[in-house]
Each structure stands twice: as C-alpha cells, then as structure tokens.
Amino acid sequence: MIYPQRMRKGDLIGVTATSTGIYTERNQIKLDLAYRQVESLGYHVVETENVRTNWKLVSSGPRERADQFMALWEDRDVRMIAQVFGGELLLEILPFLDPERIKASDPKWVTGFSDSSILNYYLTTGFNIATATMDNILYFGMEELHPSLTNQFRILEKCGRFRQKSFDLFQVDEYEDERYYEYYNLTEPVVYSHLYGKDSEKVSGRIIGGCIDALRFVIGTPFDHTGEFCSQFPEGMLWYLDNCQMPTPELRRALWQAKNAGWFDNARGILVGRTYAEDPFEDYEFVDALHDSFDELEIPVICDVDFGHVQPQWTMINGAYGEFTYRKGKGALVTEMR
Prior knowledge:
The protein is an alpha/beta fold. About 25% of the residues lie in helices and about 25% in strands. Strand 3 (about 80-85), helix 3 and strand 4 form a beta-alpha-beta unit.
C-alpha cells in the first residue's frame, strides 16, 4: 500500500466539490465555521471555484469537477484534499480523471464519505493509495468539535497504529434551530449487534468499503478494480459498508450484484454501519437483506458500527490493516498503516 505523508500543523488543505456544492445560506455559514475550526487545529484552507456553486445536483460539470480535483492533486503545496460534501453524481467525474497524472504525482490524503466514497474507493483500489473515509469538511462546522472530528486529524497526523472504540451515544435527529451550529444532538445509546447472535468475535483483514448506495454503480465498469486489488492480500479483506437511504430490496440487489461480481471473494468479515434506512419493505426487513446477502459467505457480520450517515463516526483508512473486536454490543477497531 502507498500511504500519503502524515499531516503536519501548517499544512494546506484543498477543499473541492466533487459532487454537490454548498449553496444555501445556512450551509455556507456552516462551511465558514468549519474552515475556522480546521484552522484552529493548525491548518490552512484553500477552496476551488466550484465549492459554493450548485446546479441540477452538482457543483459544476463533470470535467470541471475532475479538473479542479486534479489541480489540487498536482499542487505540491496541498497536502490533503477534503471533499466538501456528498451528493449524488460524483461517479460522472471518473472518466475525466487522468490515471497517468494520478500516478505521476506524490499521493496525498483524500477524505470524505457518502457519495465522496466513490473517489476514495477508486484511488485505493485502482492505484493502491490509502484514503480516509471520514467526515466531509462541512461537518466540522460546529462551535465545539466532537472528539470523532478532532480524532480524524490526529489519525492523519500520526499515520501509524491507532485504536478506535465504540462511542457511547449517537445522533438520531440534528438540531434544527440555532443549535445546528453547536454540537451533535446525541441521544441514543450505541449498541452493536452480531448478525448471527454471537456474544464476541474477532476478525481482521485489509480495510475497504464505503457507501454502498454509491459504490454499487462502479461494479463492472472500467473503474472497478476491486478483484485485482483484493487478490493482493493473503490476509483477506475487512469490508465496511454504509447504507444511506436504499430501501431493503434495493440494498439486497446492490449486495447481490457486488457478491456476484466477486467483491467479497476474499472477505474475512463485514462491518455494517448505522443507518436511517432500516424500515421494512412490506414483510422484507433490513436484517433479511443482510442474511440473504452474507449467509453463504460464512464470515462474521457486525451491524450498527460507528460509521456512515448517523453521527458520530470513526475514521476508516482504505487499504490499511485492521483488527476488529466485538463483545456484547460494543466494539473496537485497531488500524495499522502497513
């Protein structure tokens, strides 16, 4: 694996809109606050032209979004590229990214989640470059940063071995008033669950994954390098998957396609993130989709883990080695960048 250099205080972070731009007044205020918070952590921020524009779901055309990303990728002063937000149509930029230019430049950390995970996944599986699934930069727009947010930068500063344990509480509903800018609205206890009812489990492998809503559209395209990437690692793969909003039958179809494309051939375990999308479709429940997708694999599957669209979330380093331990509703992930 190729690991970008660790982040250092004073480094420059380039922010770009690979999918949706930030255009509402409320979110622009939040973005300005996010920049101040990142600067308070010791970094400098520069944004591309498309960050504060949006039209028909995207910040700008696919070529423009790709060009603005590549400009940051090739800028030697930029040490990290933070995707500003998720969205729906990041996949459009993939044909306009130049593989030779990507390989010719020194790698740097690329961060984000949700739709942003498509770019992370492509860089890791296609070029063996580690990427960080963590909060998009807009999420740093709060008066008091949750430890999960400050930890994300500490992890990239350390670039070594680190441990994350399950949080105590998670957020079901965001604040809708002025407290939107203050803090997470943490109200519900964090409880992981084992799909097969075990009280404890330990599983390890190379970490790979992201938002399955978005990643499913890469399957079978020229940008799908999953098979050759996963086959490099005799220790196998530790998958993490986040369902943002797919109904249960759609989730089943996405996982069926991924499994039949060979994505899970080398899997040692699967972590499933917390989700809002757990409502049954008629009599077909979320857990049914997981059983139908994973039972044949005969590997551990742990659900409601601390990543995805229900905050707060861990930092997942695509390509790093991970060891996950589960015991009675709680868990921990030890990650090694080796």
